[in-house]
């Protein structure tokens, strides 16, 4: 859209000078984007001021030169109530690319505000996979209302996608791809492509199929272009290809794209027939989401999206805090059992949080490493024992270092015996933390649970309890609080 | 390599049946890979047993059918001392793809074990960007020794890449790309590509440049193939393209690829001249690394790679534990200031870890959300205020919920006054945690520090100290410990 020339406007903006649109610094160094390629606060402020003042013409002129992905960002940076105003002001810039790039929560909000006909108009502009993403957010009733407005061909494709579970290849794949029989030559393929109208907007390889539509090979467009016309496709195609089963989870799909450096791949049904393709540009978002979500899951922040409604954020997080209250109570019970000792030696109360705190942190470190290694398929049954042994040694080294520091300081400030007690408790707790940090996520993985979701609660409970128990128990055993 | 037929071998393996290599379930359902596409423990065990028994022929036959990425995985799953044995047993399968897919630490280990000539032989097989990744691991002296063995043309390209800082586009880009003048027609471009020998193995678009080698547009191979031969490139090319400055950090490059859904992009030097290209298959690894590394950095686990040498893992993690010891001491000082109160009322010692623990967790939740939003460019100066207000409200809701629970329980078990004290302390600490969870990472970001690295220490210190201070202080103020 920034290629268009708008002659009815006096302001000269970048988009109105198409002959300069390729100036190297266009997108990187202009008045709208900063060096990190995000919209400048000044610019966002001007758009919002114009929105509030009801100056829709100004808003349009400000927004029009933006790339669709930046328009999507602009929506996210506006307050919820400004988004509807913005959509009205720039309605003819609200193309499919903007919708596809919007944050899920922001898009869901906006879709719910629109009537089914308006949603249907947007859906028809979108590629099937983007349309599915938009429709799956709606509730059943709205879905039906929108689908009723959509053309039959699109509707069939969308309903087919929705028939697969969320986050599977069948839901995410594109049903528009190029598949040709293997007897074609390179020249015949090029002629076919030139004659064909309904090609995907983006494709990077041609799939070669046999008579029953089973994929037998794949041919990158680069090879097609660099091979003489008279060569048979079967002589240039690569036979060894990565095929994605239609029911495969998106996380596994993403790992396959990463592992085998794929740009696109064929999706096959249960009978091995080619039914769709996945391209890396769709996978990139999944890779980022899946890799980033562990950070949020481990902290117990749920989806952790800053656009998530407050009630959802609250309910995701409070659940974990309540679970944590439970584990904290276990720790308190252990402290309570040593109440008499604490009354006699208040130094125990002063020092005990240190043991638990360092143990908790060491456990979190090991757990983060383990969860990440499981997520990237680096930690498997083949090497679990080795990793456990590795983490034990790291924990032992950490334990020695921290014990010496805290033991010496405690001995100097309080008594040498208390120093020895806290040093011993620290080594015990760091070894416990190392073992728990590996074993808890591995156990959840073997039980087919996401190790990122539930591990923190357990690891924290183990390190907190063990920290207090080891320290207070050793103190009593050594006769410190008699 | 799996297309080759080895006639000197009686065992029939998949790779020896090229005509069947496209059987849909080849890669997904065979005796070597499980349903998550990782090597089965049984299979790894057999390879390792054969290695230990010195049966190199058996090892070769077992490994030969694997995809290079799976051979790389196999190396990682073996113990360090088995890796050298494996490399010897399958030396002619150790192609560039295997080397490129190896984990950094494993590759570094193996490179250090080889002499410069052997490394140089591998380097010459690799694309420049993979070769650079391999060489940058070596120390200066070894680098020079390897480069001396490499052919002049490759050496120049590698030295040029090494002249850019690590993790910039200049270091990572491929110097092999297709750039043509804009006066060509589609037919002339195809003829040029067919005649040209030295084309990149992977390319997805052709860059159109002017006489001074400035990029003026880009043409996806799909468009070239579907456009009649007599059309001028300048009529089919896209003028609006995303250009990557050669000094841009890889994290920003990855965000640009995600934001604009790029498959490849031109890299330009300071004068705007085309100097290289980046393709999404290189970026996918960076996206995954950058998104995953926050999990590890927030936990203070450094690189957190399970292949990292133990001494490196120890030094990365102990640093953070020592920092944490410092923050725990601050908390202890606060407790010590209330020593007299604790001696009078030991219930304070029993309950005080609860306030700090829940506060710490709430702070971690908010911090994880904030760090992730900063990393994905969703949190900018334009919406910091809104996010702060949003997190304050979530913190308040969490605070009310947790306060009611712990307040009621404490009132029942101990006294109503102590219940009120802990409830009030909990709300104060959760609000503090919410504010610190946003403000600390944002402050580090504005100071150009990575918020994932340093935020945890500060947020933990703030929530621990505030938790103990609020609870013990309110207890004293309410006359509980007089």
UniProtKB/TrEMBL annotation, chains A, B:
Transmembrane intervals:
320-342, 348-374, 395-414, 420-444, 456-481
| Entry GO CC | plasma membrane
Show the SMART domains listed in the entry. MgtE_N
Task: List compositional bias (Acidic residues) regions by residue number.
Answer: 1-13
The cellular location(s) given in this protein's UniProt record come to:
Cell membrane; Membrane
* Membrane protein topology class: Multi-pass membrane protein
Looking at the keywords, is Transcription regulation present?
Answer: no
Residue span(s) of domain CBS: 237-295
- Record family assignment: Belongs to the SLC41A transporter family.
**Subunit structure as annotated in this protein's UniProt entry:** Homodimer.
Q: Which PANTHER family match?
A: MAGNESIUM TRANSPORTER MGTE
Annotated protein name in UniProt: Magnesium transporter MgtE
- Give the originating organism: Erythrobacter litoralis (strain HTCC2594)
The organism's lineage is:
Bacteria, Pseudomonadati, Pseudomonadota, Alphaproteobacteria, Sphingomonadales
């Amino acid at each position: 859209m920034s290629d268009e020339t708008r002659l009815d406007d006096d302001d000269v903006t970048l988009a109105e000078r198409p002959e300069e649109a390729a100036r190297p610094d266009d997108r990187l160094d202009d008045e709208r984007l900063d060096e990190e390629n995000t919209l400048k606060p000044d610019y966002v402020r001007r758009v919002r001021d114009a929105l509030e003042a009801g100056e829709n013409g100004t808003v349009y002129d400000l927004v029009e030169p933006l790339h669709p992905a930046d328009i999507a960002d602009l929506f996210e940076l506006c307050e919820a109530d400004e988004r509807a105003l913005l959509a009205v002001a720039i309605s003819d810039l609200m193309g499919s690319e903007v919708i596809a790039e919007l944050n899920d929560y922001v898009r869901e909000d906006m879709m719910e505000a629109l009537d089914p006909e308006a949603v249907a108009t947007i859906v028809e502009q979108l590629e099937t996979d983007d349309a599915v993403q938009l429709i799956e957010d709606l509730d059943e009733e709205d879905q039906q209302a929108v689908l009723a407005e959509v053309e039959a061909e699109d509707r069939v494709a969308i309903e087919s996608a929705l028939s697969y579970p969320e986050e599977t290849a069948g839901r995410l794949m594109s049903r528009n791809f190029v598949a040709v029989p293997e007897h074609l030559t390179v020249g015949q393929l090029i002629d076919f492509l030139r004659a064909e109208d309904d090609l995907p907007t983006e494709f990077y390889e041609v799939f070669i199929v046999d008579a029953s539509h089973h994929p037998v090979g794949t041919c990158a467009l680069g090879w097609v272009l660099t091979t003489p016309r008279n060569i048979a496709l079967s002589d240039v195609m690569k036979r060894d290809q990565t095929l994605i089963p239609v029911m495969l989870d998106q996380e596994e799909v993403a790992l396959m794209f990463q592992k085998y450096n794929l740009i696109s791949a064929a999706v096959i049904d249960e009978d091995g027939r080619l039914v769709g393709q996945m391209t890396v540009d769709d996978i990139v978002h999944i890779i980022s989401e899946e890799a980033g979500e562990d950070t949020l899951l481990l902290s117990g922040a749920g989806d952790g999206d800053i656009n998530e409604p407050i009630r959802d954020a609250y309910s995701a997080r409070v659940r974990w805090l309540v679970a944590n209250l439970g584990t904290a109570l276990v720790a308190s019970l252990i402290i309570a059992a040593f109440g008499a000792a604490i009354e006699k030696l208040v130094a125990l109360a002063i020092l005990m949080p240190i043991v638990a705190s360092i143990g908790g942190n060491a456990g979190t470190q090991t757990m983060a490493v383990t969860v990440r290694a499981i997520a990237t398929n680096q930690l498997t049954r083949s090497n679990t024992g080795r990793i456990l042994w590795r983490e034990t040694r790291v924990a032992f080294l950490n334990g020695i270092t921290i014990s010496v520091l805290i033991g010496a300081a405690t001995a100097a400030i309080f008594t040498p015996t208390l120093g020895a007690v806290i040093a011993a408790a620290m080594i015990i707790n760091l070894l416990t933390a190392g073992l728990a940090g590996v074993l808890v996520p591995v156990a959840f993985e073997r039980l087919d649970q996401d190790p990122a979701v539930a591990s923190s609660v357990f690891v924290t409970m183990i390190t907190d309890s063990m920290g207090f128990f080891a320290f207070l128990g050793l103190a009593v055993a050594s006769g410190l609080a008699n």
